[in-house]
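tl;dr need the bound structure. longer version: we got a ligand (uridine-5'-diphosphate-glucuronic acid) that a collaborator sent over and nobodys looked at where it sits. i said id run it. heres the input, straight from their email, havent touched it
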Amino acid sequence: MKIAVFGCGYVGLTTAVGLAEMGNEVLGVDVNPERIEMLSKGRVPFFEPGMEEMMRRNLAEGRLSFTLDTPSAIRFGQLIFSAVGTPPKKNHEADLTAVLSVADSFGRYASDGKIFVNKSTVPVGTSEKIRETIDLNSTAQFDYSVVSNPEFLREGTALQDFFNPDRIVIGLEPEDLDVKKSMDKLYRPMLDRGVPIQYTDVRSAEVIKYASNAFLATRISFVNELAEFCELSGADIKTVAKGMGLDKRIGTTFLDAGLGFGGSCLPKDLGALIEKGEALGFDFKLLKEVQKINKRLPGRMINKLTKYLPQLNGKTIAIWGLSFKPKTDDLREAPSLELISALIKAKCKLKVFDPVSMDNVKNLFAKNTNLLKNISFSAHPYDALKGSDALLIVTEWDEFRNPDYAKMKPLMNKNIIIDGRNLLAPKEAQEKGFYYESFGRTLSAEKISSGKNSSSTMNEPGLYRSTAKKNRVVRG
Ligand code: UGA
């Protein structure tokens, strides 16, 4: 099939590359000339495992190309995908400017039988706006369809998710039976492998996208509240989450406690759903709490740190992980950014390491010299530890999961680890001589040996005691 994909960001590029890989002829369209030039040369402007290789192969085999030329792209494609961004406005409402601009062009240049497939995340009712915009801009009446086909790709595993989705959701108008045939044809390689496809009305498809992200966010905030409760009650959140998750009705994923959710999607879509509710006179009380719980997590990490270092002024803090999650260099809504600002405000020096996103941090703070001059970027995780008073683990990169404690210990000034993603085994970290804090894991109240230069602060009585009571009576 001939397909034009508007927007060459994470969603658009993954869609364009994935559809080309499935044998279609695909034209990726973007308004950014530098991006188009880069992509045409086979370079991906962001970090996404496997993307560059697959993109290059499809470019070389002639199924994929990129253009700035909107009219030609719309004339070329039988299916016109919108995968442009819908960034949040100040009131969290999704900004539809880019989507409606694609609709505007579709109205001007499309002809009979073309299908507008919306992959951009948009609030319920947007398909009607898309139709209105198309009709407003077309000079003559023509037969077209608008389909809602939300995406469920995760950054870091976008291609894997594209080819092996849990489901494909397609919202269409009841009279659009020909469109259903086209969508079945498009997704046949996946349907043949047993991927379920759900045809719905357009509005339900639009809500499914927001509801899915809001539910994932709710699970994360739920487990984070529970983690706080576990700290007080002496239970272990990992054990509790596993025990809950083994119930098939609950499931084990998205129950990792820690610094919570960041990224461009969960926080944005949660805000947009709450805002849309308000516009319709509905108060999403639960989702507002989900937001609040998530927002206070970086502060919880600072509190854990000040338990050990009451005076942060002049301390050197190492940070492992900057991106909002592993396998991406995306910093949008990353907890690291809030932690960096708070620690620098408290007059700390920072030594940071991230396998892929350090350049993005440098660029982000390029104009903020006060911040940058207090951050040193390390080439290796252990370099960041040299002379540091504590280590904060902020992103769940696999390479942080099994650290060499013996190597770490002499490098650090004080052996404090605050594990914002519950990656390490508390007992092991303690046995290796570290003061270890997690988010909701069981801590032994035993006093452990301090690091090379343990200070008087470190030995203040009572500072390291678990809040959990010892010798609890377990009633059967
Ligand atoms: C999310 C959804 O998972 C995708 O299905 C959706 O398509 C995408 O948004 C989107 O709307 O485009 P993504 O933002 O890439 O994908 O990230 P997730 O894998 O969902 O992780 C979000 C955040 O939650 C990360 O910061 C991660 O560290 C955190 N998280 C995840 C937890 O804190 N605990 C968990 O158990 C899982």
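gonna send this back to them w/ a short note. The radius of gyration is 25 Å.
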